[in-house]
Amino acid sequence: MTFDLSARLAERRAAHLYRQRPLLESPQGPLAQVDGRELLAFCSNDYLGLANHPEVIRALQDGAARWGVGGGASHLVIGHSGPHHELERALAEFTGRPRALLFSTGYMANLAAVTALVGQGDTVLEDRINHASLLDAGLLSGARFSRYLHNDAESLGKRLEKASGNTLVVTDGVFSMDGDLADLPALCATARSKGAWVMVDDAHGFGPLGAGGGGIVEHFGLGSDDVQVLVGTLGKAFGTAGAFVAGSEELIETLIQFARPYIYTTSQPPAVACATLKSLELLRGERWRREHLERLIAQFRDGAARIGLQLMDSPTPIQPILIGDSARALRLSSLLRERGLLVGAIRPPTVPAGSARLRVTLSAAHSEAQVDRLLDALANAWHQLNTETGADA
Ligand SMILES: *Cc1c(COP(=O)(O)O)cnc(C)c1O
Questions:
Q1: Which fold, 287-389?
Q2: What is the DSSP letter of 152?
Q3: What is the predicted pLDDT for the residue at 391?
Q4: Cα 382 to middle of ligand 1, angstroms
Q5: Per-residue CA distances from 170 to 48, 136, 151, 212, 231 (Å)
Q6: Is 314 a pocket residue for ligand 1 (Cβ < 6 Å)?
């Protein structure tokens, strides 16, 4: 037996599922230099426009001058430095929880939290369209793993009846490919009635949601009795890198003692923590970013509905246009690119079979005129796609 990688790659190409990496030659921002051409981009997760903010850049530069570059070691050896510690305190205060623990990526924070809390003999219940890192974490944990119907507290309830051991319910806060919100009031009440804990990964909620940018738990007014384990990532609306888990003193100590993805890795560069301290300040304080974003979301939804595009039930900056067929989604994306716009086509296995889509994301850095440009290009490209394929416009 030998590895037949070329057959595997050819198969993927034939299924219109081959992925390519656009080469970015500018900072994040609405006008991006991609593959040698300037494009108006609607696909970044930099929802508040902080990834290239001058004050955040300066905080990173000053941080590097003061602390050097590398983290140097794991947190438990000699890699836990002043800025990491200060950022953990600030994130605990921001989330209204006793403590927060800093990670280098959201993927690792999720692996860490789930595997430290449940194992053999326990149960982990996840929304079926949770982010891949949460599903991987559930599988890796060795706990009994089951997926409930999307956002369905009744389906969760049925699985809770059969659960044994410590039981953890895990959900995205904002679903990353659909943009809809987890129905946390119902899910948390169901979990609580069975003594289960709830873990929410609010990678896309922190920043855009909540009056102070505190995400979905702030949006719904929930506390640590409802959501015991709260995860946020820093590479999206915060505009920097890394992630955190916030919760009780005992939860954080448990992660420090037992979470292998926390223990066996080098700390993030301290200067990145310096940058995040600055972006946290901007994210909380500059309300106009959220307000402007909300106006753009309404403008986009109105315009897209007028074109006859199929949107999803999303109040967030993630505004997918449902296409269905992967080849058609790719074609629409390339028609937009011909018109100078960059919007990614998201295909299986990232989304369920037959639900390929264009994932439009909006940012506070976009202007209303840029959203108008997107809508004009969409109307035009959509018409062409339907003419080409003979479908009803
Ligand atoms: C992006 C994302 C992650 C991973 O975070 P990284 O810091 O990019 O590793 C985890 N969960 C969700 C829901 C995400 O969207």
A1: Aspartate Aminotransferase, domain 1 (3.90.1150)
A2: -
A3: 61
A4: 31
A5: 26, 12, 11, 24, 11
A6: no
Nearest CA owner, ligand 1 atom 5 = 106
What's the angle, vertex CA 15, arms to CA 308 and CA 174, rounded to 5? 50
Distances (CA, A) of 388 to 261, 310, 393: 49, 19, 11
Q: Does ligand 1 lie within 6 Å of residue 203's CB atom?
A: yes
What is the rounded average pLDDT of the residues 154-180? Answer: 97
279-314 pLDDT, tens digit each: 999 999 999 999 999 999 999 999 999 999 999 999
Query: In one letter, which amino acid is 266?
Result: T
**pTM of the shown model:** 0.96
Which residue spans within the chain are E strands per DSSP? 31-34, 37-41, 99-103, 123-127, 144-148, 167-172, 197-201, 229-233, 243-247, 318-324, 341-342, 344-346, 356-361
Query: In the chain, where are the structural domains located?
Result: 81-268, 287-389
**Ligand 1 pocket, 201 CB below 6 A?**
yes
Atom number of ligand 1 nearest to Cα 241: 7
The confidence score (pLDDT) of residue 232 equals: 98
Q: Which residues are catalytic?
A: 176, 204, 236
Task: Give the mean model confidence (pLDDT) for residues 81-108.
Answer: 98
Q: From the CA of 233, how far away is ligand 1's center (Å)? A: 6
Six token digits for residue 101 = 């623990």
- CB of 350 within 6 A of ligand 1: the answer is no
Give the pLDDT score at 70.
98
Centre a 10 Å sphere on the Cβ of residue 383 and count the other Cβ atoms it contains.
14
Instruction: Return the CATH number of the domain spanning residue range 81-268.
Output: 3.40.640.10
Q: Report whether 233 belongs to an annotated binding site.
A: yes
- The pLDDT, as a whole number, for residue 349 is 86
Centroid of chain to Cα 112: 17
pLDDT at 392 over 70: no
Distances (CA, A) of 196 to 139, 158, 168, 185: 18, 13, 6, 14
Please tell me the distance between residue 244's alpha carbon and the centre of ligand 1 in angstroms.
11
